[in-house]
Design a protein that fits this description.
By secondary structure, the protein is an alpha/beta fold. The protein starts with 20 loop residues before the first strand and ends with a strand.
Length: about 700
């Protein structure tokens, strides 16, 4: 169910700093959530009133328990409900009657179970909203805030500056271990559950306002209103609080029934990637990557990284680190002669100074060489970041004097990194050593595997600043006919150029149209997705007899409802493109561009963005294709009119945004040539009612 933003008088912030709390369903049974939450809630005694409620009364965890909230002598601002599903509705009613401004629904058994549970969930949600309160969950695992001392999650969590919004409680536990390894912890934790009321976008906005949050981590399987998520995440990024997303496939079923190339080529992951680019969100693949990136962002903040200097104290580590860094999508370029000469002055003759840098034993002779080499390397304008790899952290094993020097060098490295404004990541064989811990404690990310370090640098530059969204057009008169000729007319009226053509149903009409247009002509059958594959296209028809014969053959085989006669397009110096839009159930219209024609699905060279896009955004998409060199002129071919192609992409993206009744639309192929573009096919698919 799509979450609804809190209305006037409702504030999601109350979830994190209530004046008083109650746990309904508190229990002594250590196998129940009501026990786990109550144990954590009692840690807040002295910070705020905590009430335990159990329908049998008596004592729970050695403290008096009320049989209902009505027995309490004071209002309760936040109520955690951990009772069986059959009693959830009544428990929420009691909470609202007791003055609750927030309800945390631990109870499961609602929309996740089907229509009956969904109806109950909706009924409870509407009641909460009508009362001006907010509901987190249901089917969630609690909430915590280390800055306010709120402990209403099922497990204790380390304190820090990362706020986690998660649909998985276990994900929080795993992530807490990785964060702790980097000296990080949680400012806030909120379990999303079913997002019946408060959703991920609402919580991102709350964390953006929260002074104790520096980074917002999200594990989400259902984004609710995807555009709200994108907008909230973009606002957080602009406020200096990056959003890091870990997600799974989610709604792949939404593209299963795709009726066009655009639909069949678009995965749920593509849509999420497009949303992340629009919002400046970092997307990671694992909880460990999330923690690694969080540590790296803490050091430097969002910054573009392309060119990396590798600094090692051995040839093997140098070579492996260089390979791993380039495999992560970064460059390890050869240093300039000037930089190599400067490094040579700091190192013995056997050292490697061209990138990667191999200290070749200089560390054992003079541990401070790490600092000097790092300083020279970071000062180089063509160096975006440094990856240090190898034995640093282990030199203390050679003696107390060298260990003391290593620790002092670690502190000098941390000071140097803080002043240079460029990211430095460290892989060490001894990540638990005093020197390694000193680096980590002072903000230099330390990793036990070199691939972690390289991946963290690659992720650091993976989320450019949020894009300025294109203006959404006003809703247009709904389209009711999705036939080829109607689709072609819709695109043409918006300004998409097509060859001269006419719709026909008989041979006589076809010949008349061809004589007006001028031979040679193309004949196309309507009602087919892959016209060429089905024999529904006849090219280069030069006479009336050829046209009649082609029409008779098609009609005998295909029985198409109609046919189109079009002028033959000029195919000289052209590149075939595809441009389309699919409406995603969560994120709305998503535009796709790629290499088109009959090889669209074979090559699958495509790029995506949330629609609408303006011309600049469309041109950026086209230039991001792997085969973009074909557009700009390759192997002696003249460059095509990329701005004109981008105008067509922007036009159809705006068209889709103005027509919510269209599920999919596309032009394939769109011929791009020097000085012109021409659309040769058009298709729209109307949404099911």
């Amino acid at each position: 169910m799509t979450a609804v933003l809190p209305r006037a008088g409702r504030d999601a912030d109350v979830l994190f700093d209530p004046s008083s709390v109650a746990v309904v369903g508190a229990s002594d049974d250590e196998s129940k959530y009501g026990n786990w939450i109550a144990v954590q809630a009692l840690r807040m005694l002295g910070r705020r009133p905590v009430h335990l409620v159990n329908r049998r009364g008596g004592t729970v965890l050695g403290r008096p328990a009320a049989r209902s909230l009505a027995e309490l002598a004071e209002p309760v601002e936040l109520v955690v409900v951990a009772v069986p599903a059959a009693g959830f509705e009544a428990a929420v009613d009691d909470a609202l009657a007791a003055g609750a401004r927030a309800v945390v629904g631990i109870t499961a058994g609602f929309a996740e179970l089907g229509a009956e549970g969904r109806a109950l969930q909706q009924r409870v949600t509407e009641r909460v909203r009508s009362a001006g309160a907010v509901l987190l969950g249901p089917n969630c695992l609690g909430v915590a805030d280390s800055t306010t001392g709120l402990t209403l999650a099922s497990n204790p969590l380390p304190s820090g500056t990362v706020s986690l919004l998660s649909q998985s409680g276990n994900m929080a536990l795993e992530l807490s271990g990785f964060l702790t390894g980097h000296g990080l912890g949680f400012a806030r934790f909120a379990s999303l559950g079913n997002q019946a009321d408060v959703g991920v976008a609402d919580l991102i906005r709350s964390c953006t306002r929260h002074a104790g949050t520096e980074l917002i981590a999200v594990y989400c399987e259902d984004f609710g209103d995807g555009r709200e998520f994108t907008d909230a995440a973009a606002q957080a990024r602009r406020a200096g609080k990056p959003v890091v997303l870990l997600t799974v496939g989610g709604s792949a079923a939404s593209v299963r029934g795709a009726a066009s190339h655009t639909g069949s080529l678009t995965s749920d992951s593509d849509v999420i990637d497009a949303a992340c680019r629009a919002a400046g969100v970092y997307r990671v693949a694992t909880p460990r990557e999330l923690a690694d990136l969080a540590a790296t962002l803490r050091q430097q903040g969002p910054v573009e990284v392309r060119r990396v200097a590798v600094l090692a104290d051995g040839g093997g580590h140098a070579s492996v680190a260089a390979d791993v860094t380039e495999a992560a999508g970064l460059a390890v370029p050869e240093f300039s002669a000037r930089l190599s000469a400067a490094l040579r002055r700091e190192l013995p003759p056997s050292a490697g100074v061209r990138n990667p840098i191999d200290l070749a034993g200089a560390g054992e002779q003079d541990i401070t060489s790490f600092t000097r080499v790092l300083e020279v390397t970071l000062a180089e304008p063509d160096t975006d970041a440094v990856l240090m790899t190898g034995y640093f952290g282990g030199y203390r094993e050679y003696g107390e004097r060298l260990g003391a020097g290593e620790l002092a060098t670690a502190h000098r490295i941390a000071d140097l990194v803080r002043g240079q404004g460029k990211p430095v990541v460290v892989h060490t064989m001894r990540a638990d050593s005093p020197a390694a811990r000193a680096l980590a404690e002072r903000g230099v990310p330390v990793f036990g595997a070199v691939e972690q370090a390289a991946r963290a640098l690659a992720l650091l530059g993976s989320a450019p600043a949020p894009e300025a969204p294109a203006a959404v057009p006003a809703p247009a008169e709904p389209v009711t006919d999705d036939g080829y000729w109607s689709s072609r007319a819709l695109f043409a009226a918006a300004g998409v150029p097509f060859p001269d053509g006419a719709r026909v149903t008989t041979a006589a009409e076809a010949v008349a149209a061809a004589e007006r247009i001028g031979y040679p002509v193309v004949l196309k059958a309507e009602g087919l997705l892959h016209k060429s594959d089905a024999g529904g296209v006849a090219l280069g028809l030069s006479t009336a007899d050829e046209l009649r014969a082609a029409l008779a053959d098609m009609h005998a085989r295909l029985r198409a409802p109609g046919y189109t006669v079009e002028a033959m397009a000029d195919l000289r110096d052209t590149v075939e493109l595809i441009a389309g839009v699919r409406r995603d159930p969560r994120f709305g219209p998503v535009v796709m561009v790629g290499l088109g024609g009959v090889f669209t699905e074979v090559l699958a060279d495509v790029a995506f963005a949330l629609a609408p896009v303006d011309q600049a955004g469309a041109e950026q998409l086209l230039r991001s294709l792997r085969a973009a060199a074909l557009l700009t002129g390759a192997r002696g071919r003249p460059p095509v009119d990329v701005p004109a192609a981008a105008r067509v992409v922007a036009t159809i993206s705006a068209l889709a945004a103005a027509h919510p009744e269209i599920a999919e639309l596309e032009i394939n192929p769109l011929l791009a040539a020097p000085g012109r573009v021409t659309a040769l096919d058009a298709r729209i698919v109307l949404a099911d009612d």
